Q: What sequence folds into this?
């Protein structure tokens, strides 16, 4: 399969894509940012707890 045929097929497939509306996109973005913030806080707390535990053991 030639490279031109590949890009032609990509173009055809991209026309079939239904892109999210502004409201959906905003909702998805808020969900992703909220999830990322949750995991940052969660892992920061876990890291802090493990650090404190190691300090107690070492000292």
A:
């Amino acid at each position: 399969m030639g490279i031109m045929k590949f890009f032609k097929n990509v173009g055809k497939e991209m026309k079939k894509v239904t892109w999210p509306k502004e409201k959906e996109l905003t909702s998805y973005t808020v969900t992703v940012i909220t999830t990322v913030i949750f995991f940052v806080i969660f892992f920061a707390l876990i890291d802090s707890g493990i650090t404190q535990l190691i300090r107690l053991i070492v000292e």
Observations:
- The CA atoms of residues 20 and 28 lie 9 Å apart.
- The first helix runs from residue 3 to 16.
- Residues 30-59 form one domain.
